[in-house]
Amino acid sequence: MSSKNQEVSQPLVVVAAAAEDLEDFELLVTDVARALELVPAPELVAREEGSEKAIEKLLAMASSVSGPLLVLPARHHAGAMPDRAGKARGVVARMRRVLIPSDGSEEVAAETRALYRRFTRVGVHVTMLHVMTENNMPRMWEGSGHHAAAWFDELRRRHGAAPDVLKVVSGEPGHELRVQAGAADLVVLFWRHDSRAGHAAVIRSLFARGIEVPKLLVALEWMEGHVSAGHVPEPSAGSG
Predict the structure, then answer these.
(1) Going from the N-terminus, what domains does the chain have, and what CATH number goes with each?
(2) Hey, is 183 helix, strand or coil?
(3) CB 149: neighbour CB atoms within 10 A?
(4) In angstroms, what CA-CA distances link 90 with 23, 40, 44, 83, 93?
(5) Which of 22, 38, 165, 219 is close enough to 161 for a disulfide, judged by CB 3.0 to 4.6 Å?
(6) What average pLDDT does the chain have?
């Protein structure tokens, strides 16, 4: 069996609080599955948005599956507006804008490049976000200047990104990611498949604050075995 067929046979687990939430994001789910070459596998999971119990349940579920987990926001939290018939209208028609945070490390940058290729080949605009903190700031940092420009160039090279694709901000990662997430249809969150206390801090922060954007949790080990090392099809028509 080819690597491509192996990928197609794997599920994209999609978690929603209710059936109507799946309906609201039906096209987005299809777009995500298409980009990753996976088959959607919806699951209805009752949850209280933002509660610690709900976050632990979602992380435990993400730990129990090898592939990506797509978590959809609940309709009553997602700002759906009624149409003329008085029925709830889907929040996101298609997946057009994706935000992929990166810590700048070689490992995460490589996986970011791989997903970037997958999303852009189906006509999706990707923004890579790097949050500069005291922990990942260059050892010799004097603000703007020649060496700062060289650092930005290296960061873009590492991610394989054009200047308008990689966005660099400074601050607390969870806060900055929440701010940037509002302009996206999907936020991709790489993690190391570890839901124990003290791990996945940024993911916990996003769920705790109830960011009303679909979130795709992707284990780095899954990326290495199925996307980064796999076949990337030639670019095709956009997503709609």
Answers:
(1) 3-75+91-226 (3.40.50.620)
(2) coil
(3) 10
(4) 7, 18, 18, 10, 6
(5) 165
(6) 77
